[in-house]
Amino acid sequence: MRAPELASVLTGLGATHVLGIADNDTAALFDHLQAHGAPTLLPVTREGEAFAIASGLWIGGARPVVVIQNTGLLESGDSLRGTAMRMGVPLLCLIGYRGHAKMTRAGIVPSNPSGARSLQRSELDSAALLTEPTLRAWGVPFEVLRPGAERDTLTRAWKRAQNEHLPVAVLLTAPLGR
Fold first, then answer.
1. Which CATH class is domain 3-172?
2. Model pTM greater than 0.90?
């Protein structure tokens, strides 16, 4: 998916702000938002801040989206769990799935990373191995973004977050294009 198209989808859904930290895969979105201003981009210094600030924006009537990488997801667990989940913030979370391709090529099923030995494999990114099990453990519903179904997946996740008053994640398995 290209960054301008993603920004358009987010705007169409009613997103007012995008918070997070750009990485190699999401930098195009951050660049696009900075240049075009809608939704409003609010970069943060740590991923946990994104969830806390997004929760505060929601209290004030905004409709934020968090964009982080899976490594940042692991860093921000307490803020996600203790703030956004506990408060019931309807929050779309776009999470870059760093290491997904290597994990898939190695034949590892994301929902079953095969235990501690898999985490020790130097050719794999342990953040990828932990992404889906971590989201399940924290009770965060998620979908993997598939080519050709991006708009539907994002819309479905947004509506679920709004209807169920909880964070819902969409895992980005490929870099966003310019």
1. alpha beta
2. yes
